[in-house]
Amino acid sequence: MAAADARDSHRRPRWGRFILIGVALLFLGLFLLLPLLAVFAQALAKGVGAYVTAISDPIAWSAVKLTLLVAAVAVPFNLVFGVAAAWAIAKFEFRGKSALITLIDLPFAVSPVIAGLIFILLFGSHGWFGGYVRAHHIRVVFAVPGIVLATIFVTFPFIARELIPVMQAQGKDDEETALSLGATGWQTFWRVTLPNIRWGLMYGVLLCNARAMGEFGAVSVVSGHVRGLTNTMPLHVEILYNEYNYTAAFAVASLLALLALLTLAGKSFLEWRQPELRHAAAQARDRTRRGIK
Amino acid sequence: MATPAAAIGFKSRLPKRPPQRVLPGFGLTLGYTMVYLSLLVLIPLSAVFIRSFEPGWSHFWEVVTAPRVVASLRLSFGASLIAALINVIFGLVVAWVLVRYSFPFKRLIDAMVDLPFALPTAVAGIALTALYAENGWLGMRLLPLGIKVAFTPLGIVVALTFIGLPFVVRTLQPVLEDLDREVEQAAATLGATAAQAFVRVVLPALWPALLTGFALAFARAVGEYGSVIFIAGNMPMKSEIAPLLIVTKLEQFDYAGATAIAVIMLVLSFALMFGINALQHWALSRHGGR
Questions:
Q1: Closest partner residue to B131 among A34, A176, A238, by Cβ?
Q2: Could you tell me which of B62, B214, B245 has the C-alpha nearest to residue A113?
Q3: Under an 8 A CB cutoff, do A111 and B51 touch?
Q4: Is residue A126 classed as helix, strand or coil in its secondary structure?
């Protein structure tokens, strides 16, 4: 790398590289750094005291709790699915595999608002299962179950798409060896496969969790915005903002921004532990498009 | 399949070869995958299509050709197109700089590129609005130049550029890393300038990845809601995006109207993705891959 850089620098004018680096940094500074700084600057605009008051508000705390609850249900659901889908797709050959991968990615192509609408069409008062739900006194739409369902939908592909390339790269030699030595299927999974995929698994969980906690559009449609009951943190930010309570809105937003920074730090750590995670999903998508298995 | 022993007529004493699938769990995992996928994605998604045609074709057509709906669709797709193109241009520069050059804090900057994936869209929305509003850090500097960003379609493009930013960078990076620099050096040896080498040698190899990044950024932008509604101003016919119109119709209990717009958005998005995929196949067959 260094040698190539040195060679290049003899041939190419140095100013070209400075201009390109300058353009890239300006673009990233304008679109990434400034918005991030703005969140913290606005949150602390009226001093630390106002900030602390805003985030210790009991309604803000009920929003934090609901966000944690929703993620705690949605992420494990998609985790079990992700492991099952990756096992079937990575370890076996069958017809329609690339179609299945495309279908798993489908929620990424659906607007979050439409994801919310779907569950209103199913469980709302005029929905397919609306009558059933009402007869059994279950609330889905405008209640916590609807928020969880919408969150599962929008975060559906995250873990599967990170795990599929990881499991494909590992092949099935380790598992076959374990089985030939007399291990049962479950023993093989728990003692061989799971340790092999642990970094990829954490990577998927991290990304899934960030989206689950931050989802706005889908959750906004199904939640009904009942303060202190069906308000997740991003929805609470919206309510405070629309009430012109900017300090409080940005204070709650700053907690979400901290979560985003923690997610990025965790992601960098996992990529350092296992560098192939970095582009695994992008390359897998590329391979599927080229029709290479 | 006949074993060699069976082929020459001996009765094999070896136990029958197990079927090709040695690993267990195929039925269980594929079955679970199909059931979960159907229950949570396929059946719910099909509900939108089926419900949209319940009031009949003429109602569907009436909704999606209403001027306010057409304006919102044009805005959503148009602003997404512009934002995705901005991301193609600057994403190429950012990916190039991150792969080819070394400079201080490169690792940190590289990690920051994923911020739009990690930052909740509502947070991005209010932060961008605070920046570009007339009293914001950037808004007050742009105002004397006569440029208004917040509460105009320009603000929508800014928000959509933010949320689509990582896609082009992240699809280009692995391709640029794999690119053989000797080809460029060969071009330089043969007398090509750096710009000629880039346009004739590097760019053709990047087309498929650029298209993929564009498609992903575009698809994400078309459906985006959270980051846009704060900065858009949301004026009907002017700065009202299609997802917001769906929400508005839902709030008025116009389920049929909301569903019709959802279906037209899904159909347009899928058609575009299909077209871009076909274009990509063409680009790949023309340039023979990387």
A1: A34
A2: B245
A3: no
A4: coil
Question: Do residue A1 and residue A80 come from a single domain?
Answer: no
CA-based nearest distance B47→chain A, Å: 7
Domains of chain B, with CATH numbers?
67-287 (1.10.3720.10)
Burial of A44 (0-12, 13-18, 19+ CB in 10 A): middle
Residues B23, A179: C-beta atoms closer than 8 Å = yes
Q: Which residues in chain A have Cβ-Cβ distances shorter than 8 Å to B123? A: 39, 214, 234, 237, 253, 256-257, 260
Q: How many domains does the structure of chain A reveal?
A: 2
B136-175 CB burial, b ≥16 within 10 A, e <16: bebbeebeeeeebbbbbbbbbbbbbbbbbbbbbbbbbbbb
Q: Is residue A252 domain-shared with residue A282, that is, in the same domain?
A: yes
The residue among B170, B108, B164 whose CA lies nearest residue A268 is B108
The answer to whether residues B271 and B263 touch, using CB atoms and an 8 Å cutoff, is: no
Q: What digits encode the pLDDT tens for the residues A34-84?
A: 999 999 999 999 999 999 998 899 999 999 999 999 999 999 999 999 999
Closest residue in B to A154 (Cα–Cα)? B41
Structural domain harbouring A17: 1-43
Taken in order A109, A112, A115, A121, is the CA torsion positive or negative? negative
Minimal Cα distance from A5: which residue of B? B101
pLDDT, one tens digit per residue, over A121-171 is 999 887 888 888 888 888 888 889 999 999 999 999 999 999 999 998 888
Cα–Cα dist B29/B197, whole Å? 49
* A&B contacts, CB < 8 Å: 283
Do A57 and A25 fall within a single domain?
no
**pTM across the whole model:** 0.89
Q: Which residue of A has its CA nearest to B36?
A: A81
Residue A97 shares a structural domain with residue A183: yes
